[in-house]
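Supplementary Note 3. Input sequence used for the single-chain structure prediction.
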Amino acid sequence: MVFDVPGFPKPNFWMHFHKILSLLAAFVFAAISALCASETSTQSHYEFEKEIPIGGQGGWDYLSVDAPSHRLFVSHGDRIVVIDLGNDQIVGELTGMSGVHGAVFSGDRIFTSNGRENSVGIYDLKTLAPISKSPVGKGPDAMIYEPGQQEVYTFNGRDQTVSVIDAKSGKPVTTIALDGRPEFAVAYPKGGLVFCNIEDKNELVAIDTKTHQVVNRWPIAPGEAASGLDIDPATGKLFLGCDNRMMIMMDGMTGKVLSTVPIGEGVDAVIFDPSSSLAFSSNGEGNVTIARVEGDKMTVVQTLKTEKGARTMTIDPITKKIYLASAKFEPVKPSKDGQGSPWPKVVPGTLKMLVYAPKS
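The predicted structure, written as discrete structure tokens, is reproduced below.
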């Protein structure tokens, strides 16, 4: 029933009014969407900020940020250089190690993986003074801290094992055998698991942190020879940087590959930042691939130019700046027997940190 009241708008007025409201709502929604898209695009854009000179002798490996003290730890030859990220100054060194690969943190202690002496070094986080060493398997390389059981894991490439150390006592807990060469690893306390790339088998394994047993083993196809690895601690989604120029996102509970994106050649490190939903892949060819994660999909939003050979990377969880190690290299001289090292030597005194920051 339609009421025709004098002075009250006719029904056709309401139809037109409804259309106007619909158009206005659509316009407002489009404007808000465009603004959000613009903000998202801005937040995903990284730019070069500065260099931090380090110098010294030898090469480098993993980079680690201790967020509470706001310090960057850089493995460098036979030591670890410590940089205060408040003023970008070198404030100390960890010494007394051979073939160091990296550092992790637990409470007031630092743990280092010493590849040439098959040990883990333990240091005081405040003073950087050495405390003790603990024996591990052959060729410890990657290392993580597992907060659920308060243990340190080293992944030993030469004997294909994992060594587990009690973080409080510094004593060995157990050794886990792996059927393949371990590369990088991440802890997932929410799921009671540690994940590790098995580079030469194109697999990823899951280790139960209570039983210290391998409980799952998944192929990473279409990825191959994964090195870098990180995790979304809320969802358990894993991000693997693969040698065939691909980053894959995998469900850590089922092993299903959810999404892939192309990356540069020579990947080493992978980082996932939960606050921005960005996944970073540092590629030795001289760039960082940055992908946005939305649900079960990844999309490349930026290819950030860096320097050739800048493969290792870490992120400051406070400022969201990313740090990559770089240096000048001597020309590679071919050996007569073809057995020479494929890695060029670092020119002494040229090691530096490249700093890239998100721009708004």
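The first helix runs from residue 11 to 43. The chain has a mean pLDDT of 89.
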